[in-house]
Amino acid sequence: MNESLLRELVPVVIGVLVRRGADFAAAEDAVQDALVEAVRVWPDDPLRDPKGWLITVAWRKFLDAARAETSRRHRELRVESEPAPGPGESADDTLRLYFLCAHPSLTPASAVALTLRAVGGLTSRQIAQAYLVPEATMAQRISRAKRTVSGVRFDQPGDVATVLRVLYLVFNEGYSGDVDLAAEAIRLTRQLAVMTKHEEVAGLLALMLLHHARRPARTAPDGRLVPLAEQDRGLWNTRLIAEGVDVLQAALARDRLGEFQAQAAIAALHADARTAEETDWVQIVEWYDELVRLTGNPVARLNRAVAVGAADGARAGLAALAELDPALPRYTAVAAYLHERDGDPVTAARRYAEAARQAPSLPERDHLTRQAARLNAQLRS
Amino acid sequence: MAKYLLLKHYRGAPAAVNDVPMDQWTPEELSAHVQYMRDFAARLEGTGEFVDGQALSPEGTFVRYDGEGRPPVTDGPFAETKDLIAGWMVIDTETYERALELAGELSAAPGAGGKPIHEWLEVRPFMAEHPPVIE
């Protein structure tokens, strides 16, 4: 049985059920039930028409649930058992599902969970595993999210920026447990890019592809982080890089720049350098200037300081850093890095140790402690 | 089976025998330490005794209710706090003795000079969720 094919069908089948008159929450439940049955039945009895099968079974599940609900309330069954002839599936349904699941009334965590289930076709258990929370907690988060959007009209167009934020969050979560969230985010963004020609969708897809291409080089076999400059570039996935660059160039050619395109352009410049020394830092600084202009994002300013340090020398980088708020996450780590490049290992070691204490993740803490240890060992000898 | 919490402290436990801050180790010593911790958890997963392991940031805040309609009061972090938890591992073992044995092994993780840290870990039994069915 092909699980990825099944999952691609989930938003399509939800769309069909909604068009036949089911409300979104009930349709989504019915399709999940049908999925469970598909996983049970298919290994013994592979189907020639998976979509038709899923639609039939999901519709039956929906009717069963609706009947149970109706008889529970002692009301007349208002749903016909055979769907009225009418509009069938539409490519727009999947797009509408993206908008609905990223609706601004949802919190980011709810939007992420709902998108992974209704658009991605993951089960609550898989999503729970990926986010390291109990399954009941995740199931509850999803059903609350469904209640929140229950009044939203399915046929309303949404804002693509909200969808992109959700997909960006999913991608950044990486992978833990059985589910590769980064790969799933790429799949969902790719699918979105087919349905809409929005430049920033292409920009985000390019950004994801270019970062995903570096994943094999980003951690050493023993699990420690490998910084960009030290990565074995032979491990980078050239196919993904080529695709990312193509997608980005097509988007940039339309001349409607946005933050994801700018971030992807920076990633593309890194991907383009055969060695760390060949990196075109001057162009990277220019792209950071664009990014800061577009977003005013303090994290972009912090990354810009690193790029300035590489392009114009550590002193210039430290000067750029001095204009920023020291309470910014990873500020201390950037300061340590620039002080080392400025030839001040004593300050650098102290700031690295300080940065390690503030680190938000274990791999980062280990990495920063290791940097401090490396400098302290040099200073002792 | 019974669950035990192996508690690691930033502060509050008696000093370790091999008490050198991590940023004064060599990078190789750090690698050996991280590998030891990884292997330990993997081995307990293999024996069916691992439940959970988490690390905490050193900086925390104290919070308390301050009455109806008022935001909670926060305080800290306190530099002088005597006890500061760094992280934990939850294990599920046949006996208390086994829990002690495993805590001893975890305390032997290598530190400066590649020698065991001999760090003090606190072993705390979990309260059971239910009383036994057969009284």
Automatic annotation (TrEMBL), chain A:
Q: What InterPro entries does the record point to?
A: DUF6596 (IPR046531), RNA_pol_sigma70_r2 (IPR007627), RNA_pol_sigma70_r4_t2 (IPR013249), RNA_pol_sigma_r2 (IPR013325), RNA_pol_sigma_r3/r4-like (IPR013324), WH-like_DNA-bd_sf (IPR036388)
- Per the UniProt record, one Pfam family is Sigma70_r2
Tell me a Gene Ontology molecular-function term this record carries: sigma factor activity
Please provide the Gene Ontology terms (biological process) for this protein.
DNA-templated transcription initiation
Residues of the RNA polymerase sigma-70 region domain: 5-70
Specify the DUF6596 domain's residue ranges.
161-251
RNA polymerase sigma factor 70 region 4 type domain span: 97-148
Write down the Gene3D superfamilies for this protein, in alphabetical order.
Answer: 1.10.1740.10, Winged helix-like DNA-binding domain superfamily/Winged helix DNA-binding domain
Q: Which UniProt keywords apply?
A: Sigma factor, Transcription, Transcription regulation
The UniProt entry's sequence similarity note says:
Belongs to the sigma-70 factor family. ECF subfamily.
Instruction: Write the protein's name.
Output: RNA polymerase sigma factor
